[in-house]
Amino acid sequence: MPPQPARLRAAVVGTGAIARGSHLTALADHADEVELVAAVDVDQAMLDGFLTAAGPGVTGWTRYDEMLAEARPDLVLLGTPPSLHREQTVAALRAGAWVLCEKPLVLSLAEYDAVAAAEARDGGPGPYASVIFQHRYGSGAAHARELLTAGALGRPLVAHCQTTWYRDAAYYAVPWRGRWASEGGGPSMGHGIHQMDLMLHLLGDWTEIRAMAGRLVHDVQSEDVSTALVRFAGGTMATVVNSVVSPQEVSRIRVDCADATLELTHLYGHTNDDWVYTPAPHAAADEARVRAWRTPAADLPSSHSAQLSEVLAAMRAGARPPGSGADARRTVEFVAALYKSAFTGRPVHAGEIVPGDPYYAAMHGGAPGWAPADGAGA
């Protein structure tokens, strides 16, 4: 692998609120490793505001292709509407840049596989594309995964994954929201995907899902509520709830293991204090073991910055980063299976959605009552 510069060159594409907040903060936290050199937005006023916030040394562009050709970034951070992600990710990869993209990385399994085809092969030095699943990162999540993977809490038995948020009519007045072609789905795809990804990160491979979806409040193409029952390869059984009609908002993961319950309760991000471990009666007397369950003293919150740290380390090593490849595809497949089960009324098993399956090409699968009636916006 050729020698790398002292600092990697980054470009932010899409300069809205997520870029001005989370992306700029993450880049500032890692300023010794990465330098923001370019920003892209088709809205000149939005771009100008971002450039003011970013400070000197950042060049603005309104054309993405020109930025890739002339700025030649090492890393592209995508914060554009979801319908643009596949095309922009593939373009960056073909230009030799790594990608860290806001969720959802793509709108279907077919799009995910198109992105994978543009990546370097596993074992190569890159470039690779990662999706921002920042709830996986931080000291609390890392500690929980270590405990579960090592069997330190006993066998995981029952789990609950909850994203019950609230979005009003003004939120869905934004033209690309609530439409399959531009957002890929409702709260299952655009909101609950964070907690569902964390659930999979903690519990591993799923094998079967049975789901329901509904439009209870909002006049949208996709759902505003979904629920599911899930079975994991290790036997764990889980419930999943995704909602944008819940006035009392909360995000929650709970795993009941043979020796303890692990619970995370937060909203848009977590620290060590948000993770609680409750020992089973037979385990409570083992004080040393219970102490080992508690989250570590060093407190790294979940954040874009925490995930960017992992991506930059992978770039330096020329290795596939977390949140990419088969690891991230599993989450996309899970969402596709949730929709397929909800819209067909039958269980769906891991691995069954393959090319030729209507749910491989689109999350709505062409289902009557869910797919756009005239095919427009599909």
From TrEMBL:
It comes from the Bacteria. Residues 143-262 form the GFO/IDH/MocA-like oxidoreductase domain. Pfam families: GFO_IDH_MocA, GFO_IDH_MocA_C3. Gene3D superfamilies: Dihydrodipicolinate Reductase, domain 2, NAD(P)-binding Rossmann-like Domain. GO terms for molecular function: nucleotide binding. Residues 8-123 form the Gfo/Idh/MocA-like oxidoreductase N-terminal domain. InterPro entries: Gfo/Idh/MocA-like_OxRdtase_N (IPR000683), Gfo/Idh/MocA_Oxidoreductase (IPR052515), GFO_IDH_MocA-like_dom (IPR055170), NAD(P)-bd_dom_sf (IPR036291). This is Gfo/Idh/MocA family oxidoreductase. The lineage of its organism: Bacteria, Bacillati, Actinomycetota, Actinomycetes, Kitasatosporales.
